[in-house]
Amino acid sequence: MTDTAGEDIMPQREHEETMGEAHVENHADEDEPVYYVISDLHIGGDEQLEHVEFLDELLSFLKRLEQLDEDAELVINGDAFGLWEFTTLEGIEKFDALVERYPNLFEQLRATGENVQITLLPGNHDHELAAYDAYVERFAAYNVDLVQEQSITRPVGDRTIHFEHGNQRDPNNRFEDFGNPHEKPLGYYYNTLVTSRAGQVSALGRRNWLKDIQAVTPTERVPVWFLSKYFYNEMHPLLRYAIVPFLLVFNLSAIAAIAVGLDLVGVWSMPTETVEGAFGRFGSAGALAFSLLAINVAIVGILVLVWIPIRFILQDFKRTIDRFGLVETEFTVDPSKPYRAAAKDLFEEHPETAVFCYGHTHRPAVDEHDGRLIVNTGTWLKRFHRRQVIAGILPPVFHPTFRLNIVRIAAEDEGVAVEYETMDKPDPAKTDLTFTERLLTVGRVPDPTIPDRVVADDTRAASTSPDE
C-alpha cells in the first residue's frame, strides 16, 4: 500500500470520442446492452454539505446519456445522496429537500430517463432509500428505478455483472436488517456527529475547509488531516510563520543535538569553532543564524529527552489495551481485501459472472481473478493525497484532486470490456491550498491517473493492480 490517501496507480487513457460513439466497432452485437456506472456522489447534507462541487459535470454527463443512440443503462451504485448528513429531517422529507435544492438535477434525471434506463441502488449513506417504499414512487416520477436491494445482476453478452455498493463488506457500515429504518451502524453516528456537524460550522473558519471531512479516507487519517488544515489554514499567520523556521530545520537540529550529546559524553569531539567560524563569514547575519541554530538544537535536545520516556509509556499502554481487547476492529474497512474475497466466492458460486462491481471505498480500481474483473467505481467527491513537505517536520499537506469516474461495461468480440472515463474538472488545489502548502510541496503534486481499459475473457485477462 502507498503512503497517500488513495493513490491511483493505473495508466491514464485519454477519451477523445464522445460517449456512445467510441468503441462501436468493437461490439460483438449492437443490440447488446451497455452499462454506465457511477457511485458515491454523496449529494446533500446540512448547510455547507449542500454545495455540490461537481454538479455541472454531472448534469453534462446526464445530458450526454440523454443523446445516446444505444441500448444503455445507467447504474448509480450506491451513496448517490447523503441522507445520513441530513440531521434535521426525517424519512421521506429528505427527498423533498433534495428536489427543492437540486431542481435541475432531478429534471435532468427525468429527461435522461426517457432515453436510457436509470437504476439506483441504496448505499449506506442513503440506506433510507431501502427503508421507505414511498421513495420508489417518488423516484419513478423522475424516471429513476430505485431497487431496494443490496445487489443486482445484469446480463452482458452470455455472462453477467454483479453490482453492489459494498458497505455490507464493511463491519462498521453493514446493516444486519437491511431496510430497517431504525438500524444505525457505527458509521451512521460518525457521519451525524462529525460529518454533519462539520457541514454546519465549516463556514465559520478562516477558510471553508472543514466540510471536506467527508472526503477524507480512510477515516483514521482525519486527525492528521485536521492538524494539517488547522496549521495551514486556521493558525494565526504570525504564529505559523514564527514556527515554520523552527520546524524546517528540525531535522538538522536533531543531528546537531545528537552530535552535541556525543561530544558531552566524550565519544566524539564536535568542531564547534569550525562551525561557528563558517557562520561568521556571513557577518552579523551568520552570527544570528548560528544563534538561532544553537537555540533550536537546545530545544530539540530537550524534546528528545522528554519524548524517549513518553514513547516507552505509550507503547506499554498500547500493549495493555491490546491484552484487554478493548479495541476489537479498526474503524474503516480494508480498501480491497474484503471485496476481493467476496468476489472470489461469488465467481466460484456463479461462474457466469464476468464482473464484480462495487464502490464505497472511494478508490477507483480494477483487479483480475481468473479472467473475471473486480471493479471499483470510485467517487465524485474530492479526494486527498497526503504529501510530506520538502523539509523539516511540518504537517503533511493533503493535496486535493477530483476524479469524476464513469465506468463503461459492454460485451465485445474479445470479451466483457470495462473502461474508465473521467469528466474534466478544474484543479481544486489552486483554490483549496494556501501559498504555504503549495510552496512546501513544490514538485510533489500527485498524478491523478485512473484505471484503463481491461477485458474479462474466458482465458485470463491482463492483471491490473487495485488502488490501495
Automatic annotation (TrEMBL):
Name a single GO biological process. Answer: lipid A biosynthetic process
Q: What is the lineage of its organism?
A: Archaea, Methanobacteriati, Methanobacteriota, Stenosarchaea group, Halobacteria
SUPFAM superfamilies given for it? Answer: Metallo-dependent phosphatases (SSF56300)
Q: Which GO terms describe its cellular component?
A: membrane
Taking every annotated instance into account, which residue ranges of this chain make up the domain Calcineurin-like phosphoesterase? 36-178, 338-387
According to the UniProt entry, which residue ranges have a biased composition of type Basic and acidic residues?
10-22
Report TM segments.
238-262, 282-310
Q: What is this protein called?
A: Metallophosphoesterase
Region described as Disordered: spans on this chain = 1-22, 446-468
- A GO molecular-function descriptor: UDP-2,3-diacylglucosamine hydrolase activity
What keyword terms does UniProt attach to this protein?
A: Cell inner membrane, Cell membrane, Manganese, Membrane, Metal-binding, Transmembrane, Transmembrane helix
Per the record's keyword annotation, is Methyltransferase included, yes or no? no
InterPro entries recorded for this chain? Calcineurin-like_PHP (IPR004843), Calcineurin-like_PHP_lpxH (IPR024654), LpxH-like (IPR043461), Metallo-depent_PP-like (IPR029052)
